[in-house]
User: What shape does this take?
Amino acid sequence: MTLNARIWWTAGSIAVTAMLVAAWQLVATYGNIPPVFLPGPDRAWSALVHGFSGGDLSMLTLATVKRMVYGWALASLAGIVLGAIIGSSRIAREYVAPMLEMVRPVPVSAFMPVVIAFLGLTGNMVLIVIAIGSVWPVLLATVHGVSSVEPRLVEVSRCLRLGRLQTLWKIALPNAQPDILAGMRIGLTVSLILAVIGEMLTSENGLGYKILTSARAFQSADVFAGVILLGLIGLVSNLALQEIERYMLRWKRR
Amino acid sequence: MRTAKGFLLPLVLLLLWEIGMRASGLQSDSLAAPSQIAAAFWTALLDGTILRRTGETLRAALTGLAVGGGSALVLSIVLGLVPPAARLMQFSIEVLRPVPAVALIPVAILTLGFGYGMEISLVAFATFWPVLIYGQAAIVNIEPQLIDLARVLRLNTFGRVTKIVLPATLPRYFVAFRLATAVSLIVAVTVEIAANPLGIGHELMTAAQSLHPDLMFALVLWIGLVGWGLNGLLLFAQRRLFGAAGASVGVPQ
Assistant: This one.
């Protein structure tokens, strides 16, 4: 497809989205739905503008983003370190990896009541749940990436008399890089989800808490404004990580 | 031998946990010994609580999966067979997909109230996207010669879908639905923990809040078992039905 045609198709698909928003507006304005249930895009937009200019929306967004990023960074670091240790040792792989596979199918949110029981309804608890939840994709991807090194590369490292640490650093981890980055992208999605639920359960300040209280007060425009912001956070963070991934893996495309 | 090694570490940890709890004589509101957890699990299993609550969760999860996955199946076939429509819908899909299903919990409470309705719609929203994305990738990957064949045979659209597209993409759709089943269980339990007074997630939350750590751990374990069993069952079916065709399915971006 030529560049020109691609631009036209993109413009067309944005126009379709605009038409969907317009349809939402028409339904909200002329449809027989009580405004408490379905605010139009106009009211959601004014709730957004209002929240950012005079209200606390920017502070709440920042709180949620911070929580998500901190928990995710913690999880990624722990996942890569643990994954490298487990993946590079045959003994650890045989004894520890099956247990990780056993824990994985437990929905992460099920750990939340357990962590609450230990730490109470605090901000730290949310952070730890985010870290526990988003560590799995990174951890398992690292184990897989580190342990599935091309056999010839392993022979090369043996010929060069590389030590275990050097093999890990120079051969196994670069080999695992695509897996790790893909795992981190999934982990970021998980951490946003857990940040929202954590805020809902603990009443810690943030968008998750905000939309829940707004729903209880029947302020549907504020609820939609919060949902739109959360969608934007998800979209932007995913796009940013995709770009970082593309940049860091540029050596693979050659 | 390999599996035996895998079980060694969990068993040792459980044993240490049990010994530690007994030796210290710890009375805790948040921790219970493995033996107490097993006892609580057995009681809750016998009096029917666990099975009833699991039934509620599975009912919501699978109904939501049928609604969300089913509509995604139809849409992905339409978008797969009509490329211009796929290109026109692309932006809308990219914008809607990153909205976390849990962010819609308050919206669902507001419009539908508590109960099956809200949980089913949230599961439907969450399972819609993976099936749609995998489905579109499946249709793009159909052997071009099969499409040519359909043209040579002068099949109409209905015949093309039922005789060529569906049989060729069935293994991939099965994988998509298997992954979406895991998503549906996760979302259902999460919604129950966060808000909805229904199912195994709510039972877990109640156990935690009424300071019954034994039952709490038993339920966490049980939820994991259900997810594991469901996935294992579908994986078995996938191998039986499709063999190598299902195993080769890659993950579309």
Residues 111 and 227 of chain B are 29 Å apart (CA to CA). The mean pLDDT of chain B is 87. Chain B touches chain A through 59 residues (CB under 8 Å).
